[in-house]
Amino acid sequence: MTDVNCFTSELTTTTTTAAAAEIATLTTPTKNVLDQSPTSPFILRAPPSAKSKLILQNMEEVLNTVKQKHREKHKRKREEKRRAAMLAEANTEQTTTATTTTNGRHVLREKTSRENGIGHTKRKSPASPLKSSTPHATEQQSSIMKHFAKAAAPAKSATNVFELMMNARNRSLGTNANGQAAGEPAEAEATASPPHSKRKQLLQEWNERKGGAKRRLAEEAREEYIEQQMEQRAKRLKKMLTQPAAPSGPKEASGQEEAQPVKRLRGRPRTRRPSADVDAQLPVSPPSVDTETVQLLAKLCSPVKKRDSLLGYFAKLESPQTAAEATAKQEGETLETPKRRPRAKKSVSNTPASVAETTSTTPSGRPRRSCATKARYDYDLEPSPTKAKQATPAAADESIEIIELDTSNPAATPKKLAPLFVRQLPKPSPDPTVLRARQEFLHSGVPEKLRQEQQRQRCFEQYYEDSYELFPRIAHVGGTRLEASLSAPLQLRQEEKAQQQQQPAIVRKTSTGSITSCTAADFVPSKTKKSVSSWTPLPQLDNKRTLVKNWKSAFERFPTFKCYNQMREKYRHFSAIDAAQDTQPMGESFVVTRRTRRSLEQQQEQQREQAEEHFRPPALAPNGELLFTEKYKPLLFEQVLVNLTPVQELRDFLANWHGAGAGQRNSQTLDDNCSMDFGNDSSSMGASCNTMVLLGPCSSGKTNAVFALANDMNFNVLEINAGMRRTGKKLIQELQEATQSHQIRKEAKAGGQLLQKLQMNGLKAKRSQGDEDVRKSLILIEDADIVFDNIDAGFTDAIYTLAASSKRPVIIVATDPNCTHLQRLMQQNTIKFQAPNALNISRFLAVLSLMENCPIELDELISLYLYNHQNLRKTLMELQFFIQSGGDGQRSRGSSQPPSTSNSPNRSPRLSTLAGVHIHQQLFEFYTTAQNVRHFVPFPVDFRLLRLNLNELLRHSMLLQHTQSPGASVSRRSAKRKSCSPKKAWLSTATHNKSEPLQTLANFYEHLSTASLLDASGLERSNDRLQPHLAEQLAHTLVECAVSTCLASKNYAYNLFDKPTQRLNLMDQLGSSCRSSCARALDYEPAMRAICRSEKQRAGLERRSSRFYHYLRNHAVNSVTSFSTELYEAACQVLQEPEMEQPQPQQQSTPHDLVE
Amino acid sequence: MPEEMETVVVDKRNNLPWIEKYRPVKFDEIVGNEDTVARLSVFSTQGNSPNIIIAGPPGVGKTTTIQCLARILLGDSYKDAVLELNASNERGIDVVRNKIKMFAQQKVTLPRGRHKIVILDEADSMTEGAQQSLRRTMEIYSNTTRFALACNTSEKIIEPIQSRCAMLRFTKLSDAQVLAKLIEVCQLEKLKYDEDGLEAIVFTAQGDMRQALNNLQSTAQGFGDITGANVFKVCDEPHPMLLQDMLQHCAANDIHKAYKILAKLWRLGYAPEDIIGNIFRVCKRLNVDEQLKLNFIREIGITHMKIVDGCNSLLQLTSLLARLCMAAESH
Questions:
Q1: Among all residues of chain B, which has the CA nearest to that of A1035?
Q2: A695 within domain boundaries
């Protein structure tokens, strides 16, 4: 049943249109396929006989149907008009339809569909509509039957059900081809029948050899079932067959049959045509018409059920067959799964009846044909070796060839089966002679040129096969072209190399340092190392005091002597420690308390003169062991020299807590800043006034102020910093005791907290030994603006809890004034620290360096301090590094005056020196200049610095100088530097001059702007490590070259420190987190400007509705801009400046603006 | 002096890469940045060096300098008194709060003026949190522990840390310095070299001693002789000589010849970034009029910008040639 289903479904799936399309494809390809087949020698070959036969069959059937339909048409006409002349006309019409294939197909399609409809509608009627209504069609069918009748008798004995089924299937598949092979089945039938039994035996053997025994068991079971079913159906059919069909006499069959092939031959000019012609002759001869088969066919044409019709037919055919069918069926079915081809062939050759049937069932069968069947036919089109052998002699006429093939079919079958079975297995390569013969045959029809081509290709293949046995053949891609394409770049590269080797050789002779900065002298291997300069400690200065006296007059408003005395004190103290080799308990001899200080100083001052040499640092640790930041930091309030105001505020705040109890605080000491209102209830006011937030930039002395005051006022500092684990829980836990009691004993300090003991190492003795025994505690929370959310959970909450509940002062130190989580605390009490003034610091540092026996030029100190962005601690560190490693050291002795100080007129007058005292001058140079490759402009070009230097650069320019009026203009410009853009000033003077300098200046600015553009583009991609380097290099080289060539100002000292007031620029205020400078300039800045301006105005006008102003101030902190009040105001100031004063100084001269 | 030591050392570390084999162990072997190195050598003998940050491009001897300092300063107690953490170690907040702090609190007996040293190599790869938690630690334990940081870009070090250190900037080595070291190594390794090859190595290294030594070793082991051709076989770069010719053609306003060279380089498959970089480097040393060279560099810079922006086609480079020729013509 399954098989049957399969067949029937196949039959039903296709549509008429598909059938028509396939007709188009199938009519032509026979020749083509023959041509193509030799190119692919590795595909399994199948004998073309079956294929050709099937195709012929198809063609024939199609033609038949065409004819039928035409005849039908004509018959109707005839029946109506009863004219005999119509017959001849019909014949001519047939020819025309055959010639115009498209026409014919059109008609055909219509007809087939119509006939299908007829077949379906009249399914139940015993008399087939075709037969009853169209005698011509039946005539034709019967004529074909006649052809087969002769062969049918012997064949019937051998055929079995399966073969019949296959035949039916073949027929259904083949019906779509044009019915060309009208007579071919006849010839096939003539040749095919005798070797049947032999072939079956062979097949059996093959089957068994291939392990078919197992399969057979399963199949037998299936067969039985199928047999049963078939018998049932056969019975049914037989019943139906008892009703007599009306066979129409074969009147014009022979005549038509003969005429058709000839016509077709004319219609389709193909090489195969002769064969059809020859074939056509044969069927004429068989005289008798098998009425029984005709009846049968008539029955089949009107099937009771579509599906059952075929089976019924099979069953009927089966009935006369003998027991031999069972075995044959088995064989057939064993073959079924892998291939259909042999079956197809067999069926074509063996069962003429089935072929006859094809013709009869065409109307219903033809349109149901699937594409898959076509593909299978393509397989069959490949030539088999046997066929090739026989075909070669017959190559001249292909029609003959086909005939011969058909006759040879039975003999060839076993051989043809072989590749079938072998296909799943690794197939042994076919016999070379056979292959060659086959190919020869296949090439026979091919044009000469093509054949030669293929010959060559085969030669190639052969060659590769011979030479590269191991590898799968790659040559089919076309070896020559591959070779050519490969050789080209190879050649190129070689040529390249040759050139490369040539060219350096040529150039090398002329110059060694053409691509690098190496000179020829560098290539001489020099063994002489640079002489290792032995370090000598800086000589102790004896006349420090006299120096300081000299400086005192120069340093206005600076407590020179106070500073000096303090430092001397410390210096002596520490050098004494160093000298004493820590045998002496330090705390006793140097008690720096307020009480003892005066007397101590006086004592020491007396001793100082004599004991100068005594305190020389020992050789073991000449540098001491403390950092300058530790060494010279203030320990008492009086020692605070800079940033005095905030420290004073802090002291006032702490003074409240210093007294005995909270209630005893007197409010007079309070500043206005600490606007706390005190009630009688200590708990109510505790929340508001026990915290203080210290805000300020790095190294502005916040923490130091706290420690100094704590030392001074005898507080015990409990410090919490970012280096500790500070979760909220831990914080509360550790500080609970401290916050709840006013004082804690020294011994009972909370675990893990860090007292300042370490720093107080040197000066251990506190005032505690004097008056008080108890030390009040003070909570210091460092870096409160830094919170690591995942690690320090609850830190912020703990701070607030502490602030709310603490009975001791809580000092919170933060850097970021916009820190969100501290906003509430900041609104209460805040002390702001600022970076100390550069001038004061420079004096302080000068005294300090003098104390360290290394007096340094004031300018250097100022420069370095500003260069470090007013970071005192860093400056101190670097100063220590410089001083303790020998100051100017060796280089000062070798080289003369550094060039930096000579040219700048803006520098303050130098420090007055005494004879024999060397004032060190290379501090700044050491920290700012590159040591390996000297650049005029420091390497990563800072364009803001460049902008500041432009004035000086232009003034020192040689090229521009000579055109200007000397003297006066220079001085004028230097005086008006702020208000007057150099370019403008220059332009004003240069307008009446020659245009050449103008050109120079334009060029210079052009280069600068390009450089800044490059630099900006590099900065945007600063994530990438490599590319920005190149951009920076490019920008730097461009600037440096521009300065040197355009301006020719070589001897000008490039100013490296920046003046903070001039640095203010809206663009800098906006922060650098914007994506690109372009976007910032175009989108961001105008918007910010507008906001700033409007909000500023609004805030100035009315207090009430300035919510956005405050919002900006408070909450815009964490957004892209670090927007704070100062920044806001600064930005507004910048914006309002141009309105006030007409010439805007900065923005015109900047290369940035030139770019943007 | 160095030879003596080398002969001893060579036996032990024959199999080492040359950058390790010839890594300086004394201050006077360190090439470049002489002033700073000399000052550090003072500290190595005198003690009490402040916290330092050494910033500079790769391959200029930052780590080597710090290790020299620590080794000489601490001598035998190096193992106890030095904590070295580089980017391969974990340096999160926890490590800073625990490990570094524990180390700083440890008591190690050292001579006066000597301190424990925490070396944080590649400090710019530390997270900001870790740096923040380091800042107060650096101060509090400054009596016993000093920090030495090495980084590529000082911008990535947060300001509080920078403010606690002396910033020492190392710059790229000059070509002559690299060359001198190369010659020294060549003689020690008994290599056959010529000026051409050494100059080629110097060109490819671009002031990076590590790369120079690596290239030297690669060439020596791959080809034996240090010749220019061999070097460029190892370090596949657009050949500077070709580029020099190209620029000279441009300066002579002969775009056809220049383009031929460029097309050849392009066909060899070099990336436009490489080509433009080498064009710039060659152009810096080009023997043409200064003004013209300036214009050249400007055009190269503009083209580089475009290439970095993604317009890295042959067309851009060709337009560069055209503009260079125009510049030469108008000059």
A1: B301
A2: yes
With beta carbons under 8 A apart, name residues in chain B contacting A699.
163
Both tokens assigned to A697: 């930039």
Answer yes or no: do B195 and A881 touch at CB < 8 A: no
Q: Distance between CA atoms of A19 and A172, rounded to whole angstroms?
A: 11
Chain centre to alpha carbon of residue B75: 27
Q: What is the CATH number of the domain that holds A804?
A: 3.40.50.300
Max Cα distance, chain A (Å): 161
How far is it, in rounded angstroms, from Cα A921 to Cα A880? 15
Alpha carbon A106 to its chain's center: 57
Cβ distance B264 to A493 less than 8 Å, yes or no, reads: no
Q: Please report residues of B whose CB lies closer than 8 A to that of A758.
A: 140-141, 143
Contact A1045 B300 (CB under 8 A): no
Fold of B33-169: Rossmann fold (3.40.50)
Q: CA A537, A540, A541, A545 torsion: positive or negative?
A: positive
Q: A72: pLDDT confidence band, cut at 50, 70 and 90?
A: confident
Instruction: Give me the number of domains chain A comprises.
Output: 1
**pLDDT for residue A319 is more than 90:** no
Express each pLDDT in A175-202 by its tens digit. 444 444 444 444 444 455 556 777 778 7
CA geometry: angle A803, A804, A807, nearest 5 deg = 75
| A769 falls within a domain | yes
Query: Closest chain A residue to B243 measured between Cα atoms?
Result: A515
Other Cβ atoms closer than 10 A to B50: 25
Cβ(A678)–Cβ(A656) below 8 Å: no
Distances, alpha carbon A569 to alpha carbons A561, A618, A847, A855, A1116, in Å: 12, 18, 13, 18, 48
pTM summary value: 0.56
- Which helix (H) or strand (E) segment is A178 a member of? strand A178-179
Question: With contacts defined as CB-CB under 8 Å, which chain A residues touch B141?
Answer: 758
Task: Specify the fold of B175-235.
Answer: Helicase, Ruva Protein; domain 3 (1.10.8)
> CA A1012 to CA B121: how far, in whole Å?
32
As for the ipTM of the complex, it is 0.88
Q: CB-CB: which of B180, B287, B300 is closest to A1034? A: B300
CA distances (Å), origin B17, targets A1126, B173, B181: 56, 21, 16
Q: Is A754 helix (H, G, I), strand (E, B) or coil?
A: strand
- A489-499 residue pLDDT tens: 333 343 344 34
Query: Which CA distances in Å does A903 have to A436, A859, A874?
Result: 99, 13, 28
- A668 found inside a domain: yes
Determine the residue type at B235: C
Q: What phi and psi values does residue A828 have, to the nearest 5 degrees?
A: -85, -75
Average confidence (pLDDT) over A764-793: 67
Nearest-angstrom CA–CA distance, A127 and A136: 16
Of residues B42, B172, B282, nearest to A885 (C-beta): B42
Parent domain of A739: 643-835
The enclosing H or E element of A716 equals strand A715-720
A426: three-class secondary structure by DSSP: coil
In 3D, which of A746, A739, A853 has the Cα closest to residue A800?
A739
Cβ neighbours of A470 (radius 10 Å): 4
Please give, rounded to a whole number of angstroms, the shortest distance from the CA of A654 to a CA of chain B: 23
Topology (CATH) of B240-330: Zinc Finger, Delta Prime; domain 3 (1.20.272)
Residue ranges in A976-1084 assigned as alpha helix (H): 982-990, 996-1020, 1027-1041, 1060-1063, 1066-1069, 1077-1079
Are B319 and B325 in contact by the 8 Å Cβ rule? The answer is: no
Establish if A458 belongs to a structural domain. Answer: no
Which amino acid is residue A256, in one-letter code? Q
Q: In Å, how far is A398's CA from the nearest CA of chain B?
A: 56
Which chain B positions have a beta carbon within 8 Å of A492's beta carbon?
264, 267-268
CA A648 – CA A655 distance, rounded (Å): 10
